[in-house]
Amino acid sequence: MEASNALFKQLRKIYAKYKEYIVPAFVLVACLLLVIFVIIPQTRNLIETKEKEEETKARIRRLKENINFISSIDEKIQDKEFQLLLRALPIEKDYVGIITAIVSASQQTGVGIGDFSFQIGSLSSDTIQEATTISFTVTLHGGIDEAKRFLRELENTLPISDSETIKFESLSTSVAVSFHYKPFIPQIIDYRTKLEPFSKQDRELISTISAW
């Protein structure tokens, strides 16, 4: 008991001696704890909330811009251009379109066609996302000049094609042609992506194709 009283008296003396320093020290420690555990976290939350608010505002602005852009599109013109582009570059093997193009080129140039053959290519679904071609070999009645005339006309006929080889024989010419197609790839457009109209080059290309 006497030891406890002595310790208590000693603490009272220390407190009385350093009283003017102890109270400010406690206040200072309390302020530091308040800053560390209250003010700083709240400031961080405020900054994060502000950033999220700005991000939401930007998202809304972009959505409004895209909605306005979509609303300004003429659906009839868009559908017409879409069908034209599908004819130029089909999303699947368009055998009917290819044969129609070959017959049309023959009629326009007066170059008769004989037998023709084609390569089906891979039927695997692994290549569904790859742009690919169908190879046709056409026998023409005529020589090199007739073949060149036929191929020039075919190049300006849909679907898009490229001539590969010309093989001249005694009374006919065999030409190998590749017709292009590209399977459709579904896409998810990010909300931050701005929808853009066709560029000048795109418009010129569509105009050129529409004349074929």
The CATH homologous superfamily name of the largest domain equals Ribosomal protein S6/Translation elongation factor EF1B
- Give the integer mean of the pLDDT values: 82
**Main sheet?**
4 strands, antiparallel
What CATH architecture of the largest domain would you give? 2-Layer Sandwich
Can you offer a commentary on this structure?
The chain is an alpha+beta fold and 212 residues long. It has 2 domains: 72 residues; 125 residues, Alpha-Beta Plaits (2-Layer Sandwich). The chain has a 4-stranded antiparallel beta sheet with strand order 1-2-4-3, covered by helices on one side. Helix 3 packs across helix 4. The radius of gyration is 39 Å and the shape is rod-shaped. The relative contact order is 0.11.
Topology at a glance:
Elements: H1 2-72, H2 75-88, H3 95-109, E1 112-119, E2 132-141, H4 144-155, E3 161-168, E4 172-181, H5 200-210
Antiparallel strand pairs: 1-2, 2-4, 3-4
Helix pairs in contact: 3-4
